[in-house]
């Protein structure tokens, strides 16, 4: 009887101490479906060593069934641009100017995440007469009058895959604009949200 009681006590202790298969999960293998991320992208423009602009974008991303988390951001304006017709009349056409971000995040292991980033940035470069009567070029900015001379539509587009660690910044690109000579730098940081 004592032997049988001891066996019953040991069996009960084993059942209590051993979680069921449904509850067993390695501590480092949390399912991707439970992960959320925030990706910060900063696009900075430099004229030599002088920073001209810095535009930060923050995109929250949550995984829902797909092993790759996806996020998109579209920001900009539609600029009216004077154009000519075949008959010589003037007409107005609208151009989309701004930034488009598409990103995909995939967990590689416990410490690294693969980020696929596609960045598209468009702007207008206009020519106008200065005080001395010379034609100069510069970037069109919101608030300027509708471009009267044919503007140049500047495009920046790149697609890159990076391996990032949680909370550590990384520089993805350094690009020289062929029109202005300005250097555009793109910095990225991925944060895993708990």
Gross morphology:
elongated
What structural class do you assign from the helix and strand content?
mainly beta
pLDDT averaged over residues: 75
Oligomer: single chain
* Helix and strand element order: HEEEEEEEEE
Brief summary of the model shown:
This protein has 194 residues and is mainly beta. The protein has one helix at residues 2-17; strands spanning 36-47, 50-62, 69-84, 90-107, 112-129, 135-139, 152-165, 169-176, 183-193. It is elongated, with a radius of gyration of 28 Å.
Describe the fold and architecture.
This protein starts with a helix and ends with a strand. The model is unreliable at 1-33 (pLDDT under 50). It contains 1 helix and 9 strands, in the order αβββββββββ. 8% of the residues lie in helices and 59% in strands. The chain has one helix spanning 2-17; strands at 36-47, 50-62, 69-84, 90-107, 112-129, 135-139, 152-165, 169-176, 183-193. The longest helix is centred in the first third of the chain and has 16 residues, at 2-17. Strands 3, 4, 5, 6 and 7 form a 5-stranded antiparallel β-sheet that branches. The chain has a 4-stranded antiparallel β-sheet with strand order 2-1-9-8, with no helix packed on it. The protein is mainly beta. A hairpin with a 4-residue loop joins strand 4 (90-107) and strand 5. The protein has one domain (30-193).
